[in-house]
Batch of 3 targets.
Target 1
Amino acid sequence: MNKQTGLYIVLINVHGLIRGHDLELGRDADTGGQIKYVLELARALIAHPRIERVDLLTRQIFDPKVSEDYARPIEELETGAHIVRLSCGPRRYLRKEVLWPYIDSFADQALKHIRKIARVPDILHSHYADGGYVGARLAGLLEVPLVHTGHSLGRVKRYRLIDQGIKPEVIEKNYHISQRIEAEEIVLDNAAMVIASTQQEIGKQYSIYDNYQPRTMVVIPPGIDLTRFHPAKRKFVKPPIYGELKRFLHDPDKPIILALSRPDARKNIRSLVQAFGGNDKLRNKANLVIIAGSRDDIHSMEKGPRAVWTELLLLIDRYDLYGSVAYPKHQQSEDVPDYYRLAAKSHGIFVNPALTEPFGLTLLEAAASGLPIVATEDGGPRDIVANCKNGVLIDPLDVDRLGDVLLEALSDRAQWLQWHSDGIKGVKAHFSWQSHVSKYLQEVDKVLKQTRRKKGVATPIQSRLPTIDRLVVCDIDNTLIGDKAALAKLMQKLQETDGHVGFGVATGRRIESAKKVLSEWKVPVPDFFISSVGSEIHYGPKLFEDNGWKRHIGYRWKPEAIREAMRDLPGIRLQPKEDQREHKISYFIEPTKAPGLREIIRHLRKLDLHVSAIYSHQAFLDLLPVRASKGAALRYLADKWGIQIDRVLVAGDSGNDVEMLNGDTLGVVVGNHSPELERLRDRDRIFFAEGHYAWGILQGMEHYDFLDSISIS
């Protein structure tokens, strides 16, 4: 297949340290198996002939404590695959739990990147809760299907922490767990497909969520790189790491019990040390090798890893394991395959004693290297052992039994050889990246087909906003609608532009009313709606709301106090409840009885109430937050999507269009305009058309040569 016609997939992994080389796996809780997964997925996807481009979006970091690599805005992984680093909150490296206030900024930066690429992705694939939140925002804005991989889940984590005796308020303080869970609920509500590693993950973990939708969930186990993880060659030469282990071990050639994970309490390395230290026969038969990230000075590590290493060293001392256990200070990602192969050549065992293991990539790496496994009976290891038949499952909290199982596994040579052989075969059959991508694309094709069917088209319809180079924005009542023949002519003109001209409406109507009236007039769904006099922005057929705009205009907004202050003013009464919105208070006004507009604003200011007041048609008064108006919403939207404001044609007929018409936009006032717009007649860049309704818009487009070179006459 010609790659020029291939798929464009955007992967979203906000947190952790991501680069294409020298992975710092185990450096902290955020830089572990998930990082490796997304990198290998990106490389495996771009290797497929159907995929043209893969962008892996992550956070850009400027911090003297980490490599300058993480500040590079773009890093090529392979031809067509890139790591794209986006600014998000403070420049320094932050753990994922404190990134939540900045996640919406990451979504905005992602939009700018997509605008720069000038192509809408075919699929968004988010990872973890924070990436999922960003993915849900982008999927709504771009009208693109969202695929999500959770990696681990907040509700499950909260239950397990409570079971360990940690108080809910402590969990909330340390992990911001409620925000994470809410993000996961949002993701599940928006995702077209959720990828799980095991059936147990779907049935036992996702099922406890309110938005659990099993029909959207598929099991696609992660793959591993079989060019890196493979059995030792017959003429095996001991790697350099053997020399490092010799520093710790009296007899370095004994079978190796290998543990490799982040220094995280949930990985439960302590139980393994207790099982080894408490079993004399096991200590005599084997060495224990613990690879748990890199450390220079334990005192300078983060609290969690510091606590893990402190406890491990105390246990090693308590059981007097010096000479029987190795725990190198530094872990290089390129050394990991050598650890597995060295352990396998020693006829050792790989152990994963984690309290919970959603999947277990290290188990697959060990199996591919010919190293049998002993693993927790929770989660992914069940499926791995069922498919590979290369080890045994254990209760990670039964320390005595863990020691006995390890001793039995090392003592039965026939069983060990069978596990060794079956593991190698099982990984190749069930867990290669080629098989993963093949299944991935089968499921993605179903999602794309469903999306097309729902939209009633043969090819996907996506938002045009990332690719347009100019924009027409019209008020609805008495501007866009009012003359059916003119409206039909305008819609025909816009449809003939081959998608490089966007179309939006800006109205005083609430969103439901705006959509209804456009449907009645048979107007195609616009790219966006600015509604309720600029207090709301929605996108596309699904009316996806722009929450960034809501947050922006919420500044100094006190609706209850405003209503109370306006209650006794003469000639002013509230419009019906259905016309009130979260950021808009609407009144009927009798000009002969009511105070003047300036007097109303002065009255509110004296009460420390700050509003933007919109008076229109000499009958309506809308009070909005000071940052809200149709004009402000239009400029926010143009900036967000990278559309030059001097390439935006704006058409209106009344006072609530004034701010939108002013400035560097290409203003058009239709012939049937209200008297309050006459004061704009001599303004530059505002054209007063003779034609009424959409005829006036068409005249304005011709006046500015809008569909061609654009000129100001």
Target 2
Amino acid sequence: MANDKMTPGFRSHPDPSEWDHFTDYESTSWPKKDRRDYWIIPSICFNCESACGILAYVDKEKMDVRKIEGNPLHPGSRGRTCAKGVVTPNQLEDPDRILYPLKRTGERGEGGWARTTWDEALTEIGGRIRKAIVEGRRKELMYHVGRPGEDGYANRVLQAWGVDGHNSHTNVCSSSARLGHFLWTGADRPSPDYANAHTILLLSSHLETGHYFNPHAQRIMEAQSTGATLITIDPRLSNTSAKANLWLPAYSGTEGALLLAFARILLEEDLYDKKFVETWVNWQEYLRVAHPGVPETFEQFIAALKAEYARFTPEFAAAETGVPVERILEAARAIGRAGSRFATHSWRAAAAGNLWGWQITRCLYLLVVLTGSIGTVGGVNLHVTNKFVPKHPNPPPAPDYWNELLFPREFPLSFHELSYLLPHFLKEGRGKLDVYFTRVYNPLWTNPDGFSWMEMLQDRDKIGLHVSLSPTWSETAWFADYILPMGLGTERHDTMSQETHAGQWLGFRQPVLRVAREKRGEIQTATHESNPGEVWEEAEFWVALSWKIDPDGSLGIRKFFESPYRPGEPITMDEYYGWMFENSVPGLPEAAAKENLTPLQYMRKYGVFQVADKAYSRGFEKDGFNTPSRKLEFYSPTLAEWGWPEHAIPQYVPGHVHWRDLKRDEGEFDLLPNFRLPTLIHTRSAVKWLYEISHNNPLWISTADAAQNGIKTGDLVKLRTRIGSFVTRAWVTEGIRPGVLGMSHHLGRWRLQEETGGSRNATALVSIAKQNGRYRMRQEHGARPFKSNDPDSQRIWWNEIGVHQNLTFPVQPDPVSGMHCWHQRVRLEKPGPDDRYGDIEVDTEKAHEAYKEWMQRTRPAPGPDGTRRPYWFDRPLRPVKAAYQLPAPE
């Protein structure tokens, strides 16, 4: 870093006063001291959901983004970025990037594409949506989002259209963890104050790869450096486990037994907060139902609690989980010593991997309740305390109907939409889609049972028009009718906030090249005029599309996309976000006025605003919790009333792949397929720097299991699932529990044509053959050097880029939360003479049979009041209350 005005001494970032006129040495000219002039423009990273602050260095001469650094003013990320953030220039300059709107030619999946115009796309899509609305077919419109990267804008669009059509990826991600938290508190996730904790308990690898990786990881490390005890429960030695004070490698699905053993020790050794539990737990309700006739005293409740969990001795937990007794005692007492400074989190991992995974989260939160760690310094906040979502202008009314393709009556308690079951719903004739948007979502690759998705996406009777809104090629986009290129983290407008720590902030993502051109005095009427090619952004796209749907305002839609300052004209992004920042962000107008700025100018200058510091969830002391009892619900009347009385309190229920049930002598294992790599985040991370670091997903196998099966590192192995098989390479390690196999789900990308359809540095060219519902995929070759405008593309040295294991997994919906239970019972085999690396076979008829069997576990609505779902339960795009009522049987 070089600047003549720079003060002496080390600094991590340029001062904001220099951001409009920063000069730096040109690194590629060394040892010459060539200088370049930059605007430093803040934005928000879009490569995971952490919403970390970034600074884009825009070259004033070339008008390109030269590098990305962290924004030191951002309260969540504090100037730091992970590998995924700094590779944004790779994404912007990817030679395989889609730069112009594309329209399919020929049949879906054949690979014929023609460049089209934004106006043609808007006209056809808008006309089709208008026709569906006019004809009363709103149920045939669906927006399916992967990573939203924003808070509320798209939902507002759907509400303005009157559409209950919001679909998401939640039920392949976090729905069981959400349900477990929500049943206790009425908030669907925690917000740990890691930085001030004395003991931190993590289920799996949150530090290195979990939700909010960068903001959480730095605070966990800070706490540990000041003496905090870090405990991880994970059958795999993750990076987090390697840094932990205690690594507890429990068998998958047995975590609940371990957690209840901790709870029993806290109770027996008097290490719990009596006053908090007595005041804030609905123990009277539990006693009335579970122990009628006994005195309703707190002492009676504690006695009943001890009796309820009496079997969870350290010895029982050790036998069930494989964790030694002394480690169990050590961990429990560390939690007890922490008192109210006990922080924990559960998001994916055990909760997402196992049937009844939400009960694991229920058991985990029991420890938070017993220690009185809710809303305390070093404890666990409710996420609503730390995540700030501003109001959007001119809010539309709620939809007036219920979409059963999203929330079918079999899953009245799901969190949330049953998105990964969509192909099976349509196969059963439950409905069809006239216009289907996939937005930064790649279900064919990300979800289980991808070939069933392929079948659905190719069937025009099931999906009339498929529009992919994507910043990059994907396996799903290949089967779309339109691919509309949408901007990355430096090419779009969004507001975003997350519960990263015990504070509250709002981040502003902005198209930095547009901002730079406007600083230069150029007039920009649309973001695609500044971005590379004609890459647009959803925020402006939705406004333009809504005007095409309702050009004269007769449908009552256009009014929600009109300027509040220029009647009858489309709203601009300056007007939209200017209104928001002026009217719904406490303290921002005053902070801006101190610098003689408007609130919008302030956010464009700094990219973030701290709404509150040291924010802790103590509101319950006045208003109670957002549950029917206004208490923390140890006993859940909702579960009891909606058909699950045996699950009404936190319980240990072994998962669907319990280690005791495996036929080990026949080669059966528990496959753990849902762990992340810290350098990748699904589809958008297929870029050169990240794949040079992480480009393969071998099968983790313990040294004992490898020796028993005659397997060495690098050997090909074959795994059979219920619906198919795949061939990959083994990695022999002491870092995984015997009986468990592990394989990251972040790799195995593929394309169907040599020159297009995927990033060539990160995808394999494959062929797919189909016969009678059976699919066979074979990799023709992996990554290899290719010519492009990026000289690095000819320096690719890696070849194998992983295996797409998710194709071979049947859907396995948890009957309560709706979560796909990721763990798989597999059979490990030696490959045959004709088997090659990456070979995949799948039978979609078997996949549908598996779906039907799992659906038999459900207990459908109606509930006790004749409704589809408890009205107090969260759901995206909540319809009017009347829509909750199921029609009376004929």
Target 3
Amino acid sequence: MTSYTTSSARAEMNELRRLKTLLPPELQSWVMVESSTEVNPPLIRSEELGKDEVEIQIDLAKWENLAIDQRNLMFWHEVARIQNDTIPKEGWEMAALAIGLGGAVGELWVQDGLLLLLALSLCGISGYRLWQKNNGEKNLKDAMEADEKAIILATRFGYSLKNAYQSLGSALKTLIEQNPKRNQRKKYEERLQALRRSATRLNNGKHKIRAINLYKLPLLLALVVVLECAIFN
């Protein structure tokens, strides 16, 4: 039993070290990769520890259910979120909302119009920021943009576009099958659909370029013939 525990811990440390090597050079000095210590944590998430320090936390128990290529693309998705500055920030909104509500109730009692207006303004600003953070449509848009950037990151590390799209798509399919929460499955499904649309657009673009090149080929051959005739005659 002790041997198995030691072996498992070693494998986890090796995986964390491997993932650190997948960080772009510009992130390696201030982004850390650690195992999550929460109870029932998400598969992967990022947390801002300070002004210049971010930690990517991974649930290694769930992580093992993914193939290496799937892990890589899910990891780069999280890296892309850091680069896009869409990870959760240290929250001040709840504290500000509580202060604003408390101030508003107090000012109603003492009937100070100016301070009441300031307290209500604080409530409005903090409430709007909380709404932004929990806006499902915006969060989904951010996730889709991170998927697109993860594909680009994968090509920096030697993946072809086709393999990058396939690996991320298969990872999302696996998460859809394994996730028991309906809302989370729906988010993965929408990301997968967006990824397929992106791959289709890319494929159609390649076909158009190929068709244009084939159309121009006879003209180029004719031009070569004309030039040869002009030179040798």
